[in-house]
Amino acid sequence: MVNSFGNRLPSRIGAAAHLAAGFRAVALSSALFAAVVGTAFAHAHLEASSPAVDSAVRISPKEVTVTLTEKLEAGLSRIEVRDASGKQVDRGDTRVSKDDPRTISVSVGDLAPGIYSVKWSVTSVDTHGTDGSFRFTIKP
Ligand SMILES: [Cu+2]
């Protein structure tokens, strides 16, 4: 009796310790997961644009606007617009919107019908840089 009770006790402690270790492992991996996901979410990704990605518009826009998922650093964020031949057609005046710190715009001249590529490169307020590109078409 005493012996069997004595034998059982350490195994229960062992099970409890094992369970606690399991909880710690789960807690640690959850923390790591949250850190990784949190970092991914903190980066600025394209949320919307005008003209819209891959859209075809009839009238030349006065500016190209890009909205990202994070607030942007003015001066470290810019948009370039090029025509099908690669010629830059924006006016190099990228600015951050006063109403929405996640939105930047650049002016363009009167764009002829054709395909245009927009390249955005930004630094969000968390100092992370991201970039991307898309196209839009001006219909003849
Ligand atoms: Cu980030």
- Total domains: 2
Structural class: alpha+beta
CATH architecture assignment name of the largest domain: Sandwich
Low-confidence stretches: 4-11
Instruction: Tell me the strand order in the biggest sheet.
Output: 1-3-6-5
SSE order, one letter for each helix or strand: HEEEEEEEE
For the record, give the distance between the C-alpha atoms at the N and C termini, rounded to a whole number: 95 Å
If you average the pLDDT, what whole number results?
A: 83
Domain CopC: 43-138
Protein name: CopC domain-containing protein
InterPro entries: CopC/D (IPR032694), CopC_dom (IPR007348), Cu-Rt/internalin_Ig-like (IPR014755), Ig_E-set (IPR014756)
Pfam family, one: CopC
Topology overview:
Blueprint: H1 2-42, E1 46-50, E2 56-57, E3 63-68, E4 78-82, E5 95-96, E6 103-107, E7 114-123, E8 129-138
Parallel strand pairs: 2-8
Antiparallel strand pairs: 1-3, 3-6, 4-7, 5-6, 7-8
Bound molecules: copper (II) ion.
Copper (II) ion is lined by residues 42-43, 124, 126, 128.
Give a short synopsis of this structure.
With 140 residues, the chain is an alpha+beta fold. It has one helix and eight strands. The protein has a four-stranded antiparallel β-sheet with strand order 1-3-6-5, with no helix packed on it. Strands 2-8-7-4 form a four-stranded mixed β-sheet, with no helix packed on it.
